[in-house]
Amino acid sequence: MIVIIQCRDQVGLVAAISGELTHAKLNIISMDEYVDKANNRFFVRLDVEQTINKQQLEFELKQLLPDDAVITINPVPEKKVVVLVTKEYHCLADILVRNYFKTLSATVQAVIGNHTTLQDICVRFDIPFHYISHEQESKQHFENAIAQTIKGYNPDYVVLAKFMRILSPTFVAQFTMRLINIHHSFLPAFVGASPYRQAYERGVKLIGATAHFVTNDLDEGPIIAQQTIPVNHTFTTTDMVKAGREIETAVLAKALQLVFDDRVFVYKNKTVVFE
Amino acid sequence: MIVIIQCRDQVGLVAAISGELTHAKLNIISMDEYVDKANNRFFVRLDVEQTINKQQLEFELKQLLPDDAVITINPVPEKKVVVLVTKEYHCLADILVRNYFKTLSATVQAVIGNHTTLQDICVRFDIPFHYISHEQESKQHFENAIAQTIKGYNPDYVVLAKFMRILSPTFVAQFTMRLINIHHSFLPAFVGASPYRQAYERGVKLIGATAHFVTNDLDEGPIIAQQTIPVNHTFTTTDMVKAGREIETAVLAKALQLVFDDRVFVYKNKTVVFE
Amino acid sequence: MIVIIQCRDQVGLVAAISGELTHAKLNIISMDEYVDKANNRFFVRLDVEQTINKQQLEFELKQLLPDDAVITINPVPEKKVVVLVTKEYHCLADILVRNYFKTLSATVQAVIGNHTTLQDICVRFDIPFHYISHEQESKQHFENAIAQTIKGYNPDYVVLAKFMRILSPTFVAQFTMRLINIHHSFLPAFVGASPYRQAYERGVKLIGATAHFVTNDLDEGPIIAQQTIPVNHTFTTTDMVKAGREIETAVLAKALQLVFDDRVFVYKNKTVVFE
Amino acid sequence: MIVIIQCRDQVGLVAAISGELTHAKLNIISMDEYVDKANNRFFVRLDVEQTINKQQLEFELKQLLPDDAVITINPVPEKKVVVLVTKEYHCLADILVRNYFKTLSATVQAVIGNHTTLQDICVRFDIPFHYISHEQESKQHFENAIAQTIKGYNPDYVVLAKFMRILSPTFVAQFTMRLINIHHSFLPAFVGASPYRQAYERGVKLIGATAHFVTNDLDEGPIIAQQTIPVNHTFTTTDMVKAGREIETAVLAKALQLVFDDRVFVYKNKTVVFE
Fold it and tell me: Which pTM does this prediction carry?
């Protein structure tokens, strides 16, 4: 059983929490704790051997903790996700394969694409595919159609797996801290369009990818995971795109694993990640 | 103030320890905890804001913990070390530079070499250099001379910074878990002599280095840190040696930092490293 | 058009080859050249802008080169491969996805499994799956059945994508330098069975994977690609297996890309890889 | 003997160059060649076994190559360098150690500091140290004093080893493509001041360092080498600075090795690096 707590810091929190668990005869298998001194914020993630009455434990903990404490006991072990795509296959295929072999720590409910390119692969894996073209009356219509389709599934998270349309603040506000994006650069380098072209033109020796929560500031949300790989002068923009596929797939897979295993806290614009 | 505890595992240890610290009005800045389930072993490292009477806290903790508990409160913050070398300069020079600029978390008391090659660099940094040739009556004489010289300094650790003579169990037994070696391969690959030649002949695509505590079984002691770097078909044995220098220097530096900051526990033949 | 040459080294080979190409009005886009001094062996890979009459160019080059020269002009651009599997899905799924999206630089003709676990995923991608159980009269029967099935497809390469049965020298001899294996360790560390268990017991701080050609000496064939990733004391054997999946998939994918793009030469027990 | 050529591309360059070398009875040990298609630019670096009359070979090659060809035969094997520093020791100490042990492929002639912090380490290695304070009448006076001191040594390269003053275009213009800087971030992320603070505030999961030639556009010159290392939420700005030291030292060391071994070409704002 996982117990997650976030609250303002004060002396004795670890003692209070672990004392309560011991009192409830619960055995702590592992415990990750972090205090953000700059923000006076306390984060803890406990893996507890036994399962117990949630209401009771939450009630007891509330007595001991600051009144702003957010306590999550035994979060949904198998998250439900909807995936948004455009034409590029690599991140989606990786997710579908892990979903099929049950190693995603989540269940893919549906895929929404603004092109039909990736419909067939979804069909092969028996995943519903919704084609919603961006060539609609307006961007608002387009986003409404997507939002309604998503809400029909009521997912825990929405994954932008190389979804190449910019989403409006109105859309984003409907899924706060539930939208996860893979950005094809080592943010904050090469923000915006065509990062591989920018990287080529700048002559960098590394390219990277960033998985992050989506907020209103495009490409500025809390970062979950990042990686880089070496490139050199022989790489054309096309070669960088190709090499980038591998790193994008790996970074998104890692970020999803962390989020789905309840290892990622968000506070202000940063994440605390207990690996 | 650092508090380190190792003991057999049982329910309630975290609660007991953190409760005692809270009771003593001590604020936990960070806490790393690990339970080795296979060996039923508990390890914890606490960084506590305040400094307190050691005897009192140790006494209180002993009441709460299993009788096999090893408790270290406020370990020597600045370790004393003696370094053993042969002819290769890279690890020693890195240690001398960090020592000089006070970023080693330790003080180098002396260097012992079985060649005089590195005497001059030590002199330049005002570090005593002891030349003890291995061309003595016997290996036993050689090792006795080294052991006596080391004991004259009473160091916390002895660092084998590319010391190229094999040490006998009798020697090793005098400095249990205080001898740290850098081995020029990714152990357990290429155990023994000339690992870069072995790597070249095998045609590997990565070479590595391993920092470990020295035990009686040569190259078999608990591993503290390891890294690898890519090589390719164009690397001769000499090129691998040259590339290896960089990785050996980096791995030993990292391992020493971890040990000197009291982040490394040893149990049986493995380490627990709280980074 | 790709031109590949391997022969014993002598003065003037680059001039002779590039002179002949210039004479034939061919433009060299890129050229990778390597001389193995220890073995007096010359390797070159040229990417030429134009396509030309193969027989004529090969005839001309033969006049200029040592009589042991192996010349390959315009090798099959789309290799044919048969994949052997047992129960683990990760390498196979990655290959099937790349095959489906035409980014494998090869065509998967069929999959052979000694269990039926991976039949369904093959069916979903319209790839023939042959179930050949190892529980036959004898190992010889088992291997004969596999060899016959492979030969029915006449593939360029056979990929062992986590095929967990040891193949006999008799079998291997039928597919010299056409068998590519992914080994779940950083060879030559942890040769043999259960490398992750061995890694766990030794307490290493990195685990790795190795893609190599299969020869009669088990796990001793020429290495194509290797990578490592960090692990720590919290990793159980199961955790290492899980982390290993990612690195195995990545290393095999990279090795296949290199081989299928005609970038890998083999001489004696080592590879020359032009990346 | 090293031969380096850069010129506009045309058919037959490799044949012409290698033909001339063969004609001169020179044996090519290794050859790196690259054509920048976007800019129609040809680069080649040859390592030739024999040494030969430079004037004669240069004359012969000029007949065969485009008139814009820049030919360098047998460049100075041991470069002369002047190092500029402020207070941080890590890059300078690394350079001084390699210089002392003759593994720098260059000779340090002098160090110039705008503080006296690093004078003592230079004295210990018998390297002249010039203290030139930036608290002068004007920035122009400051830069003039530095430029005059540098010119007194007539170095091949000037290394900015954590020199923390911004240099004017007038200064830079006096040492075109001879100024090498280490920037404490993965450019182009976190351009400008306090990159580690910026990295901390953005919550990135990697930090990096960039070695580059200095041009008039601050932090925008051709990149020679880059690396990144993982960080996480527990890293304060101070921790990042500390971790950054290691990567800055490694990246600058690598870049200097490449430049001093004549492996780096510059064309427009990018480098071609033959590793």
Answer: 0.95
